[in-house]
Design brief:
By secondary structure, the chain is of the alpha/beta class. About 45% of the residues lie in helices and about 20% in strands. It is built from 19 helices and 25 strands.
């Protein structure tokens, strides 16, 4: 220890003993700034200062015992080491003091113990503060959207459940507005995700000013927002929704000399505890009303009507089912690949890539997974897509290996349903047996939320494949934030931090704290950490400073077609 500054509050009536304490601290390598108090009123004033590093108290000053001092320190809310240094204190009193919160007691004739005790307690205090900070971050994440600062989907779902608990016939009705931005994808595609994120943040600030103080505004995900209007009739809700729609339509977003406008489709549903059985039904109705607003021309409000919306939903969903089945039958899926760079060195000998699935429509136009994956999941088609990806990714990776001497590694995504499916296991084992692929070169990615939702099946699935030599990564970590404790249960090798936290980590202290915490916890758990959506060199540099193992994003590599004999991308 060399010249460690220490802000010390000493409760001691002897100047000589205070001098001896200060001298002992200096001998131990501390640079102490000492404040001595004798009276209780002076101690109370001193404890208003939050910057104390440690409190040292004599046991029995006239009119001020160490027990009283400890009570005052605890009442102040300070989490600092409290050490009793006394010339005469019985062991029973000392043990009692330790039980009530004192961290140590030292006899004045044995001050050689002082510095080691302080060093130990300072280290433990720092650990407590770091743990408390991590818990605060976790708690904040559990109820807030990291990008916009709005409450998240969990909050609005919880409030709806509370309102549904009242099933009396005479209770007031409530309204849920489901807002989906129109033309938002254009901004992401032309100016990048950073521009899209900035638009969402600006709109979130505007929307806050358009609702009543006791209402709830949440970001539901992507470019979707929810507004819960408590004790609100249809006419008043329509007025609020029209105001929201007008503000969004009039909003001009400027980015890099370009000006963008967006619109919104708003679904409106009225509900009470006796009208709807659960929260999922309310959200589903609002979502379907929003879908109807889009289907009827966008930039409008649509009030939920069960008969009308059900017709539209069935038509839209069946269209997707037909398109996906046709693509599976005619092999109109294709693979893209994106490099994952090592941050530990510049050696590219052992390259890593992630395979990304795309679909081609009837005209040969590329469809991104965000468009067709939800429908595939809803209609149990995801397992067939996963199996297609596994077979073709193995073939593509083998083709890549033939062009290089580097062993490399390929990351392949698996959906939640595949974690419970024996057919997926059979396909993987078949490809392993009938190709030259080495299992240690394949890392399957599963999302945090999917793994937690099917925890028992996920652990069984992962364990069986890990016994064969395959590796696993927990993808989108932090977005669900179910619990860090699940890392002890899931036998994964990599932790992929959700890109939503990475994008703003240089400008948002909360995102920065989250990214740093996840990286540290991942390393403590023995996992390698991967940062997603790395879109600037500045972020890349900061990730290196934090000790991340790998990085992925447009600043590293823009996804490109995976060239292989079976990949239909190159044929389109």
């Amino acid at each position: 220890m060399i010249n460690q500054y220490l802000n010390v509050l000493i409760v001691e009536d002897s100047e000589d003993d205070t001098f001896l304490l200060e001298r002992e601290l200096k001998r131990g390598g501390f640079v102490p700034s000492v404040t001595r108090v004798v009276k209780e009123k002076d101690l109370a004033v001193a404890l208003r200062d939050p910057n104390w590093d440690i409190v040292i108290s004599d046991h029995n000053i006239p009119g001020l015992s160490s027990g009283v001092v400890l009570e005052l320190v605890q009442a102040s809310g300070l989490d600092v080491p409290f050490i009793i240094v006394s010339g005469s204190i019985g062991e029973d009193i000392a043990v009692s003091a330790m039980r009530t919160g004192a961290h140590d007691y030292i006899m004045k004739d044995n001050l050689v113990r002082l510095v080691p005790a302080i060093t130990r307690e300072l280290r433990e205090a720092e650990t407590r503060r770091a743990h408390k900070k991590a818990q605060e971050v976790i708690h904040h994440l559990a109820y807030h959207d990291s990008l916009t600062g709005l409450s998240n989907r969990h909050v609005i779902e919880d409030r709806i459940n509370q309102l549904l608990a009242d099933i009396s016939q005479d209770q007031p009705s409530h309204i849920l507005l489901y807002i989906d931005l129109d033309q938002f994808k254009i901004i992401n595609d032309t100016s990048g995700h950073i521009a899209g994120d900035e638009l969402l943040k600006q709109l979130a600030r505007m929307l806050k000013g358009l609702i009543r103080t006791d209402d709830v505004l949440s970001r539901l995900g992507g470019d979707e927002f929810g507004v819960l209007l408590r004790s609100c009739g249809i006419k008043q809700a329509e007025s609020i929704a029209k105001n929201i729609l007008a503000v969004i339509q009039d909003f001009k977003f400027v980015w890099d000399t370009k000006t963008f406008t967006v619109g919104a489709s708003i679904g409106l549903v009225e509900f009470t505890g006796y009208m709807y059985k659960d929260m999922a039904s309310v959200l589903s109705a609002a979502d379907m009303a929003c879908y109807a607003a889009k289907d009827l021309g966008r930039n409008r409000i649509h009030i939920y009507s069960e008969e009308e919306v059900n017709i539209l939903r069935r038509q839209g969903e069946m269209l997707w089912v037909s398109t996906i089945n046709d693509a599976l039958e005619k092999n109109r899926f294709c693979l893209y690949q994106q490099k994952i760079a090592s941050l530990a060195s510049t050696d590219d000998e052992d390259y890593q890539i992630e395979f990304l699935v795309r679909m081609l429509d009837h005209a040969g136009e590329l469809i991104l997974p965000g468009a067709f994956i939800p429908a595939a999941e809803r209609y149990n088609l995801m397992n067939q897509i996963d199996c297609w990806v596994i077979k073709n990714a193995f073939a593509a990776f083998i083709g890549m290996q033939e062009l290089t001497d580097s062993p490399g590694m390929a990351f392949i995504n698996l959906s939640g349903v595949s974690l419970c499916d024996e057919n997926t296991l059979a396909v993987i084992k078949h490809e392993l047996e009938n190709t030259s692929i080495k299992p240690e070169q394949i890392c399957f990615e599963v999302t945090e939320t999917a793994a937690i939702a099917n925890l028992s099946s996920a652990v069984t699935f992962i364990d069986e494949l890990k016994q064969l030599g395959f590796q696993f990564a927990l993808d989108d970590f932090g977005v669900g934030l179910s619990s860090f404790s699940y890392l002890k249960s899931l036998p994964v090798d990599y932790l992929k931090v959700d890109g939503g936290f990475i994008r703003d980590m240089l400008s948002d202290p909360m995102d920065a704290a989250i990214v740093e915490s996840i990286n540290k916890i991942g390393h403590v758990a023995g996992l390698k950490t991967i940062a997603e959506f790395v879109e600037s060199e500045a972020i890349n540099i900061r990730l290196k400073e934090l000790g991340f193992d790998l990085a992925q994003g447009y600043a590293i590599h823009i996804p490109e077609e995976a060239i292989s004999p079976t990949n239909t991308c190159v044929l389109a």
